[in-house]
Predict the structure of Glucosamine-6-phosphate deaminase.
Amino acid sequence: MDVRIVSSEEEGGKIALEMFKDQLAKNPASVFGLATGSSPEGFYREAVASDIDFTKATSINLDEYVGLDENNDQSYRYFMKDRLFDKKPFKKNYLPNGMADDLEAEVKNYDEIIRENPIDLQILGIGRNGHIGFNEPGTPTDITTHVVDLTPSTIEANARFFANEDEVPRQAISMGLGSIQKSKKIILFAYGEEKAKAIQGCIEGPVTTHVPASILQNLSDVTVIADNAATSLLK
Ligand code: F6R
């Protein structure tokens, strides 16, 4: 893994922006896997402020809460429109539909979308417990898109975005670890000391389902963009 230690999210965002531009220079119709949460925000700010052109590109997001529609400002569809898509249009944006009546059919539909649009470059954040997407500790490494019961740790971590913890949805639809591992290139962002243990497990720990991000050690093209605090436990 290539670990790039940065002094700010702005600096991290600029590094990622160059990697996105390189990918688009190779293929303007590239497929980008995108994430929500605080970690990629610096990158989205840099992208919006730049001349990057996604109009021929496709995006596929990692996950979406079950039960929040796109007008809910905590839904990931709302987040993506607000941070990126409304300002930088893509040819096509895919997110799981957390409002689907038949979640199992939606899971299959999303797998089909991922199969038809192989991901060239995937962005990830990392949970304090080492999750990527909503693949919580213990998730099988070959799993595809699935409905997840969020762990108490994730519910607590995400409560900061809601009025209170009770309002955090208890389920999400997530791209699976099996699909994430098929991305040709991955960028993982991690900022802040609350990510230090997860980053240590991801980079230096054994590859184990207890730390889902540790599977990234098996892949050939992974860049971790992190600050001093998040890398403070590395040897
Ligand atoms: C978001 C996602 C999650 C987050 C992770 C870190 O789409 O898939 O895995 O990346 O929970 O969240 P933040 O960046 O808010 O610390």
